[in-house]
């Protein structure tokens, strides 16, 4: 079934990962609404610059496309923000509990303890955040120009809106009025898809009905059928007001229909990467590992660091050389297929790609069904309800790769229609717990909330009958710490106009 979406009504960051369109820089602002009427007027002003999901023209003949802007702008609100904008109580009561509570109060579910506890977050999160504005630019100059325009709108609100401060900076600041993010560049100044641990990021984002150019991107990124084919996921897994994988409309939609339609929920998390700890841990573990250090790093993530090769298809150093040769000879379409079109059907034991690997934890690709004959209509029926769209960029600069302190990591944003069923489930049950993978309490290596008082471990299996011993990875330190975040509602452009006009009517 082909789904036709009103792309003029959907905020662009839902459909497009801006980084893939050469938007190398980003700036995120957080606001407080102090006066409802003036706040709504401010929302109306921002809405005039909000970037929609309409495709950008590739030539002057693209009559249904828009000119690609130098900078994009998008906006979202916390529950407290919608309340400050004076939405009707009947509408507010229709939002789900997880969104109403907000991220900090969900810390036990998310595993945000120890250094990740909200009391240790950046100062900005000590404030009550009401709104989020993102600016993505093809250059830092374009970002600054749009940022200055937003500041003008804040000033024009005449006390109705306050720009919150309290972001950490690269030079020890803790009171900045924005969070900057950027792609990382190689030694020649060329932008890369890397993050600070060195992994290639953003390869396997889900594809769903209604997105642009679905057929060319669905391999390995949609849902797996019993026949081994790939189909796009249901739109309602990522956009409110549309049918989901259960053939139902999401139950997390507030009233009225126009407030919810074409909107979604966003999880915003600032994740600090402990670079020194990661490098020392990898170096120490590799001394006792039978393969190379890069092979071990690939076992942690499920992909090789240099080019993102899936380790299930290149499980050791020798097979990686063959994979690289084939990759170098492939055309662009062939390369994309090699990076995404794979399953774990021939790796039930996890000997090739460990069950503790990052990409296998967040998207098991149907492998949770193994051992249950014909359990579901599709082999990934459970997995298909747990997919999330990932957005964001790295932030900060690693000035000393032997240290953890500093300000560097990933701005992680997850888009989904049901935070509890999708993002929180992945975080709680698949990253910080492993019962679904038959590995008990073993956490995912990279993102798990490993506790120094109860050191984590995982087992890297070998092929049955090989005669080789498995490799035990023990004393896993906490490699990533949460530095802040919250849950946001991204309205459609129609809903933004209703909010701005004070015309949200749940009756």
Characterize the structure shown.
By secondary structure, the protein is α+β, with helices and mostly antiparallel strands. The chain has two domains: 12-271 and 484-501, no CATH class; 275-389 and 435-482, no CATH class. The chain has helices spanning 12-15, 36-47, 79-84, 89-92, 97-101, 107-110, 140-156, 214-217, 257-260, 275-286, 293-301, 317-329, 332-340, 358-362, 420-431, 493-501, and strands spanning 25-33, 71-77, 131-137, 161-163, 179-182, 223-224, 230-231, 264-273, 389-396, 408-416, 456-460, 471-476, 480-490. The strands form four sheets. Strands 1, 2, 3, 4 and 5 form a five-stranded antiparallel beta sheet that branches. Helix 2 packs antiparallel against helix 16. The protein is globular and about 70 Å long. The mean pLDDT is 94.
Key words describing this protein structure:
2 domains; globular; metal ion binding; alpha+beta; five-stranded antiparallel sheet; 507 residues; four-stranded antiparallel sheet
Report the biggest beta sheet as strand number plus sense, adding barrel if it closes. Answer: 5 strands, antiparallel
Helix fraction?
A: 25-40%
Series of H and E elements = HEHEHHHHEHEEHEEHEHHHHHEEHEEEH
Global Rg: 22 Å
By secondary-structure content and strand pairing, the structural class works out as alpha+beta
């Amino acid at each position: 079934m082909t789904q036709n979406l009103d792309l003029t009504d959907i905020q662009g960051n839902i459909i497009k990962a801006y980084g893939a369109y050469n938007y190398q820089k980003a700036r995120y602002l957080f606001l407080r609404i102090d006066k409802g009427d003036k706040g709504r007027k401010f929302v109306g002003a921002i809405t005039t610059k909000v970037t929609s999901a309409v495709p950008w023209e590739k030539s002057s003949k693209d009559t249904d496309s828009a000119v690609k802007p130098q900078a994009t702008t998008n906006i979202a609100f916390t529950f407290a923000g919608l309340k400050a904008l004076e939405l009707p109580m009947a509408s507010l009561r229709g939002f789900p509990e997880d969104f109403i509570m907000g991220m900090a109060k969900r810390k036990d579910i998310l595993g945000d303890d120890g250094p990740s506890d909200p009391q240790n977050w950046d100062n900005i999160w000590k404030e009550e955040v009401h709104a989020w504005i993102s600016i993505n630019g093809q250059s830092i100059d374009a970002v600054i120009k749009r940022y200055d325009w937003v500041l003008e709108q804040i000033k024009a609100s005449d006390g109705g809106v306050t720009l919150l401060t309290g972001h950490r900076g690269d030079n020890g600041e803790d009171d900045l009025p924005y969070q900057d993010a950027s792609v990382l560049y190689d030694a020649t100044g060329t932008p890369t898809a890397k993050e600070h641990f060195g992994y290639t990021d953003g390869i396997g984002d889900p594809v769903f009905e209604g997105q642009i150019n679905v057929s060319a991107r669905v391999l390995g990124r949609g849902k797996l059928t019993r026949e081994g084919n790939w189909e796009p996921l249901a739109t309602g897994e990522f956009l409110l007001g549309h049918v989901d994988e259960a053939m139902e409309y999401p139950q997390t939609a507030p009233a009225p229909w126009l407030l919810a339609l074409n909107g979604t929920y966003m999880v915003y998390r600032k994740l600090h990467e402990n670079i020194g700890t990661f490098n020392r841990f990898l170096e120490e573990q590799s001394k006792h590992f039978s393969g190379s250090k890069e092979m071990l790093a690939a076992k942690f993530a499920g992909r090789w660091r240099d080019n993102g090769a899936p380790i299930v298809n290149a499980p050791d150093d020798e097979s990686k050389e063959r994979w690289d040769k084939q990759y170098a000879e492939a055309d662009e379409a062939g390369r994309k297929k090699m990076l995404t079109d794979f399953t774990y059907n021939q790796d039930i034991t996890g000997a090739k790609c460990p069950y503790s690997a990052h990409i296998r934890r967040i998207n098991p690709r149907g492998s949770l069904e193994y051992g249950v004959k014909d359990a579901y209509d599709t082999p990934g029926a459970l997995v298909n309800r747990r997919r999330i769209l990932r957005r964001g960029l790295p932030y900060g600069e690693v000035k000393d790769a032997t240290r953890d302190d500093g300000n560097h990591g990933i701005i992680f944003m997850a888009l989904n229609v049901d935070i509890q069923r999708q993002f929180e489930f992945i975080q709680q049950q698949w990253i910080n717990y492993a019962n679904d993978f038959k590995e008990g309490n073993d956490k995912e290596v990279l993102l798990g909330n490993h506790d120094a008082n109860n050191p984590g471990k995982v087992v890297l299996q070998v092929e049955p009958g090989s005669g080789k011993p498995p490799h035990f990875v023990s004393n896993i330190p906490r490699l990533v710490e949460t530095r802040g975040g919250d849950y946001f509602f991204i309205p459609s452009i129609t809903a933004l106009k209703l909010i701005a006009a004070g015309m949200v009517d749940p009756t």
